[in-house]
Design brief:
single chain, mainly alpha, flat
């Protein structure tokens, strides 16, 4: 039961953060870092799943579309 609650809390937090990230101005350092493309490969011992993949899974579970996280009121209602 506790694990399920933590998983839901993690998904909710990721979706809120993703919405905030999308609403940020293009000049914001965090927004620019998120949009940045890094060359090369990740080391083999690195994480198998990227943050954005988790966010997309969370969006599927909450039945959100790509443009929905920009709408703060809708996001709060869904999660």
């Amino acid at each position: 039961m506790i694990f399920k609650d933590l998983k839901i809390k993690g998904a909710t937090t990721r979706l809120r953060w993703y919405g905030s990230l999308l609403r940020m101005d293009d000049r914001n350092a965090l927004h620019r870092a998120w949009k940045m493309q890094i060359e090369g490969n990740r080391p083999a011992e690195g994480p198998q799943k990227r943050w954005i993949k988790n966010v997309r899974e969370d969006m599927g579970l909450a039945r959100l579309k790509e443009e929905n996280p920009k709408d703060r009121a809708l996001l709060q209602k869904k999660i």
